[in-house]
Write a structure and sequence with these properties.
It is a single chain. The protein has 543 residues and is an alpha+beta fold. It contains 17 helices and 21 strands. The protein folds into three domains: 245 residues, GroEL-like equatorial domain (GROEL, domain 1); 107 residues, 2-Layer Sandwich (GROEL, domain 2), CATH 3.30.260; 147 residues, GroEL, CATH 3.50.7.10. Helix content is 47%, strand content 18%. Helix 1 packs across helix 3. The protein is globular and about 95 Å long.
Length: 543
Amino acid sequence: MLTGKTPILILKEGTEREKGREAQYNNIRAAMAIADAVRSTLGPKGMDKMLVDSMGDVVITNDGVTILKEIEVEHPAAKMIVEVAKAQDEECGDGTTTAVVLAGELLKNAMDLIEQDIHPSVIAEGYRLASKKACEVLEKVAIEVKPDDDELLKRLAETAMTGKVAEANKEMLAEIAVKAVKAVAEEINGKIKVDLDNIKVEKKQGGSVEDTELINGIILDKERVHPDMPTVVKNAKILLLNAALEVKKTEVDAQIRITDPEQLQKFLDQEEKMIKEMVDKIKNSGANVLICQKGIDDLAQHYLAKAGIFAVRRVKKSDMEKLSRATGASILTDLDEIKPEDLGEAGKVEERKIGEDKMVFITDCKVAKAVSILVRGGTEHVVDEIERGLHDALSVVAVAMEDGKMITGGGSSAIEISMALRDYAATVGGREQLAIEKFADAVEVVPRALATNAGIDPIDILIKLRKEHSEGKKHIGVDVFKGDVGDMKELNVLEPLRVGVQAIKSATEAAIMILRIDDVIAAREVEKKGKGKEEGGEGEEEF
């Protein structure tokens, strides 16, 4: 007979469950911890982080998305904040730290409202309205950028690199970034489109950052396959081949039985003849440079060297595609199909020694719609961090050219948003009004963090900023070098409009998603059975 006391087990044994406020607070705290981890890297006076992984590899950076990718995050809510940084990086390439810090601040302010018994879905609705309004404000304060205004584009690139290792050489790197983006920019249906995949960034340790250069063509981290091949080929006719230059093996298992030495010699001669025919086809096509995606047989290398053809093997697929765009060559899979129009052209193909390694430079391309940047630096860590700074610079120039709009940085846009939101909150009414006001407070985390990282009193700065903005000076922001407020437009602290809009959108979406969670059900990992015995050693038994 059932007494009604029998427990009903729904979840698997060992499953952990958090409900209600406890679940919400834990998620918010995890997200805030992630935001705190990157907050000190924000701005020109931001500090760097040294990250050491389980293998002992060291990464030194202040790039928000790199930090969050490198640290192994366990908590599910914290992982959602890491996704904010990744989304920001993919969309704009810059503003990752801002997006993460803003998401953390939105959640921190939401916690105060939850304690006042305001329902999370009301907060979420208020945040949605505020986010929409904030994006409208940014559109209003945006300044136009013309695609041919090189000086303005350089200032955008310099702002993206300020506060990073690349800052010491930002003028030179900004010029390289602008030239590279303009080289690959295309006009489609009256709109400018930039595919950053057409800019190949190749890193080589050695030399100094000043040795970084833009190559109007492609660099391959490879060397020619045979020492007898020419090191320099001028007026190169390039053949791109996606097939192995060797005798094909049979698809099915097969045996070749040879009963006397003559047959063996015939077999070898036939192999040699087939390879020679392949090389002859290449030679007859008029090609003097062969870039092969697959392998090149030793014998084929010898014949290519005799024919004076410069050859490189095992080139990555992505590099083959860039070469095709840079030289105008078609990627062929069959040697029988070679036509003169399939060959690409380059003014010069040469093998150069860079540091300890040899690299192949394909330059002076007539139709270069793909370019390369060779990044140099004293140590591996410097080269890596320069590359990250350059990635941000290339991204912001590309985004600014595509959208044609920019905003001023230094927290000036944030103050403009927070003041507009406070006025807007009064018109909304209801409990959502409180959420909009909290959103306005959260946006001010940007100037506050910039000031704190520069050792300036954040409260004094905020008071000054609000006063200036209330007088209609919408470009006044934090001048971290003077320790005061300043006109960001005059100081050339600029960023693309898309960076600010995306940061607000992705931070708001992540904050809303975390706020709406009130139940966390986590399954426990199954422990390996028999573990105790293994640890106990042979002949030991547990009683």
